[in-house]
């Protein structure tokens, strides 16, 4: 738990010292059941529900999830429903929310390209109005707020690998822009609230994360390949197949997010696994580990697909003492078990 402190910041426009909001007096109270009230927006989703599991392990934490269930599900949180330190609210972050909390992990936003492109206007509203609403809440109650931004702020990167100083190469009017540009504006809002109102902010730039509880028909590459391999279907590599991604196992991601929230650095900080694979290599790994009988086929790609992506994690290592522990070949079988259970296909 971080120490209580009054946040001070310099207003760049006039050099005045601005006093930020005071954290809630509950943060360090001895008399409450929980010392830290934590809001997790998007907590019914893939990363959010794993984060909730980890936060709930600490008996000092009280966790409130706000989610509209667009891509998340109550099923992901079923073990906590009814727990005295847990509360689940059906809420859309594009509307204001009034709750007394000390920390906000702001994850709410569809993450898979097929879902965020499904209703792009809603996606950009979620990123912009949703983040504005959560910053307004943070300002009112003096909470620290962490935004889960994305490596997609680097767009189709011309610098490889990507460190946090790279400003990116993003198409502002493309089909992915509702997400990429939405997250870029969300980062801007975070820093403007920080500079103007002294809000305690944290920004994580998350790189492709995978693990149990991803939606089976989520459309993201790891969940697609694993579901296809288990069902005995061909693995659909989108052309040209030489595009790269770096895959982080979800428990490593959650550890990184909590360290960022608890530490003293605003970020942005890349959180991801620097092991880089082409999509053909990923398909070959899934085939070898899960079902050697399936074919790998090449299918058409979607517009603006980034050609390469790999995080520089020097900042995460130095400032958070964090680095991923689970390799892709260790992580894929852990995810397979969960997918087999949900698909009802046991391993032969
Ligand atoms: N998984 C990744 O590889 C990855 C990479 C980069 C960034 N991120 C970010 O991490 C966060 C979580 O991603 P995830 O993979 O768990 O995705 P997910 O789709 O499983 O979870 C998102 C959650 O947000 C909820 N949500 C969506 N719109 C909402 C709204 N308007 N109001 C309230 N709730 C809403 C969904 O119902 C879902 O429960 C997202 O912000 C995403 O942009 C994820
Ligand atoms: O990590 C990130 O920053 C971002 O990464 C992903 O976006 P993307 O990398 O495009 O994720 P996928 O849809 O899983 O695609 C990865 C690659 O796999 C390919 N792919 C996808 C699906 C498939 O069946 N086959 C296939 O080859 C795509 O063409 C792409 O090159 C996430 O879905 C975003 O939410 C996230 O913010």
UniProtKB/TrEMBL annotation:
It comes from the Eukaryota. It holds the Pfam family GDP_Man_Dehyd. Pathway: Nucleotide-sugar biosynthesis; UDP-alpha-D-xylose biosynthesis; UDP-alpha-D-xylose from UDP-alpha-D-glucuronate: step 1/1. It is found in: Cytoplasm. SUPFAM superfamilies: NAD(P)-binding Rossmann-fold domains. GO terms for cellular component: cytoplasm. Its EC number is 4.1.1.35. Keywords: Cytoplasm, Decarboxylase, Lyase, NAD. Residues 39-335 form the NAD(P)-binding domain. InterPro entries: NAD(P)-bd_dom, NAD(P)-bd_dom_sf, UXS-like. It catalyses: UDP-alpha-D-glucuronate + H(+) = UDP-alpha-D-xylose + CO2. Signal peptide: none annotated. One of its GO terms (molecular function) is UDP-glucuronate decarboxylase activity. GO terms for biological process: D-xylose metabolic process; UDP-D-xylose biosynthetic process. Gene3D superfamilies: NAD(P)-binding Rossmann-like Domain (3.40.50.720). Its main location: cytoplasm. It is an enzyme of class 4 (lyase). Its cofactor is NAD(+). Catalyzes the NAD-dependent decarboxylation of UDP-glucuronic acid to UDP-xylose. Necessary for the biosynthesis of the core tetrasaccharide in glycosaminoglycan biosynthesis. Belongs to the NAD(P)-dependent epimerase/dehydratase family. UDP-glucuronic acid decarboxylase subfamily. This is UDP-glucuronate decarboxylase.
